[in-house]
Amino acid sequence: MFRGIIDPKSRGLIGAILVLLFILPPILPRFYTYILALVFVTSLLAMSLNLVLGHGMIFQFHHGVFYGVGAYTAALILAKTSLPAWIGFVAGPIAAAVAGLLIGSFCVRLTRLYFGMLQISLGSLIWAIVFRWYSFTGGDDGIHGIPIPSLISSVNSAYYCILVIFVICLVALYLILKSPFGSTLEAIRDNPQRCEAVGVNVRRHQLMAIVIATFFAGVAGVLFVVLEGSVFPDLLFWVLSLEVFIMCLLGGWFTFAGPILGAAIMVSLRTFVGIYTEYWTLILGIILILLIFFLPEGVMGYFLEKLKPQVKEAAEGGAN
Amino acid sequence: MLRVKAVDKSFGEFMAVCQANLSVGKGELVAVIGPNGAGKTTLFNLITGQLWPDRGKIVFRGEEITGLPAYEICKRGIARSFQIVNIFPRLTVFGNVQVAVLSQQRRSNNIFSPAQNLAIGETKSILESVGLWDKGKNIAGSLSHGDQKILEIAIALGNEPELLILDEPTAGMSPEETAATLELIKNLASNRGLTILFCEHDMDVVFSIAQSIMVMHQGRTLIQGRPEAVRENREVREAYLGGE
Predict the structure, then answer these.
(1) CB within 8 Å: A175 and B112
(2) The domain spanning residue A290 has which CATH number?
(3) B114 touches chain A (CB under 8 A)
(4) Cα–Cα 20 to 30 A to A296, which of A119, B20, B28, B68?
(5) Residue A1 domain-assigned?
(6) Is the ipTM of this complex over 0.90?
(7) Per the CB < 8 Å rule, is B102 touching A182?
(8) Which pTM value belongs to this model?
(9) How many domains does the structure of chain B reveal?
(10) What is the pLDDT of residues A274-294, one digit of tens each?
């Protein structure tokens, strides 16, 4: 299944990073382990968005909703029912995918900006329900003290759980992008009209991509519950969706790993600049302006562009 | 094989296509000619489902395909190239054709196996037959205009069509490229037994390869017949050939 998919040169690098991530937690202060885990969760959310955004050019403006639906579903099952915890963990992504299917099937009728506008309205509807339905969702207080199984309730064990799921999801997303489904999605991004003309049902294909992306957003939502033990309506608010959108642009939306970088930058900014000033978004704004002028393809896109001659040679060397 | 019966299409007040008739027999090489704005491209868009006709009927292999979405028409065996280059500019040349082949093989929705191991042979043979195999790894957007037009045809071949529709296949090409493209079209017709419907500006091209010619003028079909008959038709001369 993996044969020839990952080029041998990057295999060593990926392995080294993985080993490093596995041995870090006992060494790092607890706070940093937590931040790292938060970066993974946020990265997964950003990457799930980028499946449809960067690779499908579908303007999924309100991706946060599906993150929230996944998180709330898991949280409600864990906190309010006596069902085994794994049911909550499995139900989260499925609920997110169902929400993706429902909202998506309305939105794919529209294109580009109109798609995004309709999605913001439908998504905000779900946010409003969660925000107001005190008896069920806890309203603007959210749900706190969610009972997480003791096996993964400490910061370190949650970290490992999140890391493993994160890596599995990355591999799955990578395989999906390299599959015929993924290459057809990229073809639709480039030229939907031509895709129709070669026999691709463009809307159905886009809807399927949305369902897959929202499923992974739901996984990220469940991981958030595992890490935080609480949920609140901000998870579904449009501001978060915008942040995730920016992460993709910041990291490089036409690259595979770009959103990870974008998420890492955003989480670090909020954490470390946020200590000094609550106006950390000001710094973000300045970075965004610089980005638009100097790195329009994102940070990762910029470095890949720089590396290109070498990459090309490596690819040719690999083919011989 | 293909019959277009009294098809109309208007954009607001403007009748782009009006009472157009066309028939294409199996294995034929049929040309549509007419001055700029005669409605040739609109007619092709109506046949392949990019546009829906206001009135009239389009029948392909005994089945009415009027108003079907483009991807359904493609699945029934009609593939096309576009007048203005319409490719996947960010994908490789290989990837461009592979998308069509995968769609033809009903594999576009497969999410479990790597695309790079699928449909290699079919894609390769198409690229070889049009002479683009050595450029397979190039990004399609970086090709020359002539090569992009050829890639247009290659993408259409990826669908293994029974009827291939080419909208001005040689538009913007140099004389050498035009000659090579004509050779290619003739080969496709004879070697693959493809039925080809095309439109073209260059009269020499049309009269040298077409077996049947349909003349359009102001959205209307003036005549369809063998090249000699069309050449001698008085109405056609007045409307079109007379200007030359």
Answers:
(1) yes
(2) 1.10.3470
(3) yes
(4) A119
(5) no
(6) no
(7) no
(8) 0.88
(9) 1
(10) 888 878 888 888 888 888 788
